[in-house]
Amino acid sequence: MTPTISAVLENRVSCVLDKFSTEEHRCGAIAFLRNVKPLLQNGPQCGLVALQMAASSLGLPMIGIEQIHRLAKEKGFTNRGEMFSVEWLNELALAIWPTLQGTIRDMPTAEELSELLKNECAVLVPYDCDKNNEPVIRNGNTAHWCIVVGYLCCDLNESELVWSKQKPTCFDNMYVFCLHGKSRHFALWKYADLFESNANLNEIGEKRRTDGEIYILPCEGFAALKRKCLILHL
């Protein structure tokens, strides 16, 4: 079933397909997009807002961000809303929505990710965020959270864009639809870029260390984020 997408996202999809098209052949793709409502953050609450979007996408009751923040603070997981541990985010999710099932795991392969999304899982990923919110390599200095909500697998053997749960035959050029708390628009990023950005989360960075704010870090530091993601499902 073809989802209803905005003109902004339609243009982003078209731009990606143009990269792989030639004058003789228009590149096609197999695409899938979950129905998830975007939510915006207020301050450094990206992980909490990603969790809020994940729960909403699974049909769970909407809990206000203030309540989520308060509980996270009571548990000693955050101060201003920051979330520097996948395990803490999972524990917070299960405390708020007891019917949830959570799995902390290494970042999935492209094929594994497609199966998770088709099985209605919410996939929450920490990554380094560039000024345009795209994944970047900054050693963890601009760590941010997103929720992966779909994929676009470009395939030169396809001649049109097909929205379907059918298994893509090629994962070499997989792009992912993502939401995060800094924009109401669906992002479309190369999955390899998100994967690599997640793998370079090493430290909080000089800016956060010297901005006068107090951040809560787990004892293992950014190892609590690096190469990890959170899978939530019912």
From TrEMBL:
<keyword id="KW-0378">Hydrolase</keyword>
<dbReference type="InterPro" id="IPR040043">
    <property type="entry name" value="ACTMAP"/>
</dbReference>
<keyword id="KW-0031">Aminopeptidase</keyword>
<dbReference type="GO" id="GO:0004177">
    <property type="term" value="F:aminopeptidase activity"/>
</dbReference>
<comment type="similarity">
    <text>Belongs to the ACTMAP family.</text>
</comment>
<protein>
    <recommendedName>
        <fullName>Actin maturation protease</fullName>
    </recommendedName>
</protein>
<dbReference type="Pfam" id="PF21646">
    <property type="entry name" value="ACTMAP-like_C"/>
</dbReference>
<keyword id="KW-0645">Protease</keyword>
<dbReference type="GO" id="GO:0006508">
    <property type="term" value="P:proteolysis"/>
</dbReference>
